[in-house]
Write a structure and sequence with these properties.
Radius of gyration: 13 Å
Oligomer: single chain
Length: 123
Amino acid sequence: MRLFLCDDNSEYRVLARVVLEREDFEVVGEAGDGEEALASAPACGPDVVVLDLNMPRMNGHEALPLLRDALPESTKIVVLTSGRAEDERERALAGGADGFVVKPESVFALGAELRLALRRDAA
């Protein structure tokens, strides 16, 4: 699965990349905020965009509808947050997200959480 990772924490992105690539995800691009994601994600051709909500400049809620318009309909967008889960989940799904993941305590659980979110919210 080709994945684009958007999170403002560069250390989290590096660790997530290493972990996800060991779990058969191909990380095709990264961004530190919504503006960077809009500028680079469409050219990367991801199957899935993992989009953090809490970022500077352009946050995930602002970037979500713009990414939805810029990416093919088949590209899934999974929102990632460490914030108030239920409020954020409803807002993200209403805004066009295909899945929602609360950042796991361990980045080593991220791949499983992504797969679960894609299955659950696609059903």
